[in-house]
Design goal:
- The protein has five helices and twelve strands.
- The protein is α/β, with parallel strands linked by helices and 193 residues long.
- The chain has a domain of 134 residues: Rossmann fold.
- The chain has a seven-stranded mixed β-sheet. A three-stranded mixed β-sheet has the order 6-8-7.
- Helix 4 packs parallel to helix 5.
- It is globular and about 45 Å long.
Length: 193
């Protein structure tokens, strides 16, 4: 395992030097910079729901969703309070953003198979976990996902457990809690370096 940042890590054996990496939800470019330092020729794609953050980080503006349709992004006072899943108490305003499923995102970006998916999408990871349990999961070798059922509660632990349960058969799971925030690394069983 290689530690990319204090939050993100991956199985470096599953990264092709010219492979594809997708980050959904970009709070900073630390993971991207660590990936580019380790594998300079990796193809990096960034997706960010917030208009301001997408512009700031040079990411494509769209949000992970449960269906291909416009969704409402609730903008909180702090970046970790932005969410398309539900409005939190500190909602300042909202904006509409293009919502896409993981299948649509990969097809739109013309990614056949992704080596690493990084996700910190403030609650919408529930959609990601559910979608990884479907056919699109075969296109993802590994995913490092921020979970939001403790620090900022966008959903309950029961909702998270229900989303993770179908993944127990096809994925290895490794949980960590850097700075009290919960993350999971999912590695598809049977993927070879």
């Amino acid at each position: 395992m290689i530690q990319l940042t204090r939050f993100y890590w991956c199985d470096e054996r599953l990264i092709c030097p010219t492979g594809d990496v997708l980050q959904i939800g970009i709070a900073n470019l630390d993971a991207c910079m660590a990936l580019r330092k380790q594998w300079p020729s990796v193809h990096f794609f960034g997706l960010e729901a917030s208009r301001r953050n997408a512009r700031k980080f040079g990411a494509t503006r769209a949000a992970l969703a449960d269906a291909d349709r416009p969704v409402t992004l609730h903008l909180g006072k702090k970046r970790y309070e932005h969410s398309t899943l539900r409005q939190v108490g500190n909602c300042q305003r909202s904006e509409s953003v293009r919502g896409m499923t993981l299948t649509s995102i990969l097809d739109w970006l013309q990614i056949a198979k992704i080596d690493l998916l990084l996700s910190n999408c403030e609650g919408a990871e529930i959609y990601l976990l559910r979608q990884l349990a479907t056919d699109v999961g075969q296109r993802v070798r590994q995913a490092c996902v921020a979970l939001h059922c403790s620090h900022v509660q966008f959903y309950s632990r029961q909702t998270l457990d229900t989303a993770l349960c179908p993944l127990t058969e096809g994925w290895d799971m490794d949980f960590r809690t850097p700075q009290g925030l919960e993350y999971v690394l999912l590695r598809r069983i049977g993927e070879t370096p």
